[in-house]
Amino acid sequence: MDDKVAYWASVALSALALLLLVMDIALVNGNRQLQTEVNQRQVTINNGVNLSQINQGLVQALADASVKDNDKDIRDLLAAQGITVKPKNTANEPE
To answer: Looking at the chain, which terminus has fewer C-beta neighbours within 10 angstroms, N or C?
Structure first.
């Protein structure tokens, strides 16, 4: 009788170990996919910072050109995007 109980106990424990192994493999694969998604999002965020700096430079160059050349079209373009261009005061102020 003890041999039968030991046999079935070992079969049950073996099945449990196999089930835990399959679950572990599934969780590792799921974590790998999530990690890949997070890495892709981080790359997108990092690229956004670089693009933001480029956009800021472009807006500054457009604003400078509109002031320098007194170009109303560029000012209107920037205004349509919510950017206000104020010309620098070129008059000499009294000291």
So the answer is: C
